[in-house]
From TrEMBL:
<protein>
    <recommendedName>
        <fullName>Delta-aminolevulinic acid dehydratase</fullName>
        <ecNumber>4.2.1.24</ecNumber>
    </recommendedName>
</protein>
<dbReference type="GO" id="GO:0008270">
    <property type="term" value="F:zinc ion binding"/>
</dbReference>
<keyword id="KW-0456">Lyase</keyword>
<keyword id="KW-0350">Heme biosynthesis</keyword>
<dbReference type="Pfam" id="PF00490">
    <property type="entry name" value="ALAD"/>
</dbReference>
<keyword id="KW-0627">Porphyrin biosynthesis</keyword>
<dbReference type="InterPro" id="IPR013785">
    <property type="entry name" value="Aldolase_TIM"/>
</dbReference>
<dbReference type="InterPro" id="IPR030656">
    <property type="entry name" value="ALAD_AS"/>
</dbReference>
<feature type="active site" description="Schiff-base intermediate with substrate">
    <location>
        <position position="196"/>
    </location>
</feature>
<comment type="subunit">
    <text>Homooctamer.</text>
</comment>
<dbReference type="GO" id="GO:0005829">
    <property type="term" value="C:cytosol"/>
</dbReference>
<comment type="similarity">
    <text>Belongs to the ALAD family.</text>
</comment>
<feature type="binding site">
    <location>
        <position position="239"/>
    </location>
    <ligand>
        <name>Mg(2+)</name>
    </ligand>
</feature>
<comment type="pathway">
    <text>Porphyrin-containing compound metabolism; protoporphyrin-IX biosynthesis; coproporphyrinogen-III from 5-aminolevulinate: step 1/4.</text>
</comment>
<dbReference type="InterPro" id="IPR001731">
    <property type="entry name" value="ALAD"/>
</dbReference>
<dbReference type="GO" id="GO:0006782">
    <property type="term" value="P:protoporphyrinogen IX biosynthetic process"/>
</dbReference>
<dbReference type="GO" id="GO:0004655">
    <property type="term" value="F:porphobilinogen synthase activity"/>
</dbReference>
Length: 329
């Protein structure tokens, strides 16, 4: 008798397929990244991210409510900082009344139960477009970490629930956790971008925030001295285990699609949740191909998000969060 087993029996119809399905994405899986800009009633489309917008605080409030009503319970905030407020040390990042600090309050006021996460890195504030302080062609590690810890504390004071350091300086999780504990913010969590690669997929994001490394003498043109080499796998585990030791509550792999082997490695190596960031370039690729009629947008979005979860993600930061939740509900 051949074949001995007929696997197709379990694929005969949707009823049986749904019974044997191993995972499903749900609204609980998503973190919605949001870009915030100064002004009133501003909704600026990002050129390289069709149908994604920078929002002024009044529209941020509406968006947070809408996301909550759709079942999305977490947002990740980024701000576009006016050019004249940028400097080398990112001083504006510590302004208690800065755009990020106001955005946190706006989001928490809009929906107090919404989990508000914030990006912690200097690049949107840096005159040079780097995640830390630049000196003699280098990004200073310890000076940057100290500022990043203060930045995290400032977000915590404004009401952030989870800080998401995306800078890849060494030791910054320890520095931030220690400062939070000292200042009485025991409940504020840290989601570390622990395995963040020096990826070409961040291009559209840097357009969104105008945060790309500037083209000037003695300014590194890329972030390869702090973000990870895409060729490395074991290093992602090392980085993440160290961040856990330093106090991270959640670790993250970024970008998503090209790094699902890393997601599975971390899932197997750590016993805390693994987050995945499906980044701006991944969003742009799908949008561009769909615009040309070359790919089925909705099907590809759901397939990629499902694959990210299957790889081991406990949560996914995605510009498709809202689309996906609408598609699955
Ligand atoms: C800032 C930061 C970046 C992203 C998230 N936080 C850009 C970078 O490191 O250059 C990228 C997100 C995306 O591409 O969607 N440190």
């Amino acid at each position: 008798m051949y074949p001995l087993r007929r696997n197709r029996r379990l694929r005969t119809n949707e009823a049986i397929r749904s019974l044997v399905r191993e995972i499903a994405i749900t609204p609980n899986d998503f973190i919605a990244p949001l870009f915030v800009v100064e002004g009133k009633n501003k909704k600026e489309e990002i050129a390289s991210m069709p149908n994604y917008f920078r929002l002024s605080l009044d529209l941020l409030e509406k968006e947070v409510k809408e996301l909550w009503n759709l079942g999305i319970k977490s947002v990740l905030l980024f701000v576009k900082v006016p050019e004249d407020l940028k400097d080398n040390a990112g001083k504006e990042a510590l302004n208690a009344n800065g755009l990020m600090q106001r955005a946190i309050k706006t989001a928490k006021n809009a929906v107090p139960e919404m989990l508000v996460m914030t990006d912690v890195a200097l690049d949107p504030y840096s005159a040079y477009g780097h995640d830390g302080v630049v000196s003699n062609g280098k990004i200073l590690n310890d000076d940057s970490s100290a500022i990043l810890a203060e930045m995290g504390l400032s977000h915590a004071k404004a009401g952030a629930d989870i800080l998401a350091p995306s800078d890849m300086m060494d030791g910054r999780i320890f520095e931030m956790r220690t400062l939070l504990e000292d200042e009485g913010f025991q409940e504020t969590g840290i989601m570390s971008y622990s395995a963040k690669y020096a990826s070409a997929f961040y291009g559209p994001f840097r357009d969104a925030l105008d945060s790309a490394p500037v083209d000037a003498e003695d300014i590194p043109k890329d972030k390869k001295t702090y973000q990870m080499d895409p060729a490395n796998r074991d290093e992602a585990v090392k980085e993440s285990l160290m961040d856990i030791e330093e106090g991270a509550d959640i670790v993250m792999v970024k970008p998503g699609l090209c790094y699902l082997d890393i997601v599975r490695d971390l899932k197997n190596a750590v016993n805390i949740p693994v987050a995945v960031y499906q980044v701006s370039g991944e969003y742009a690729m799908i949008k561009a191909a769909a615009e040309k009629g070359w790919l089925d947008h909705d099907a590809v979005v759901l397939e990629q998000l499902t694959a990210i979860k299957r790889a081991g993600a406990s949560m996914i930061a995605s510009y498709f969060a809202k689309d996906a939740v609408k598609l699955i509900s």
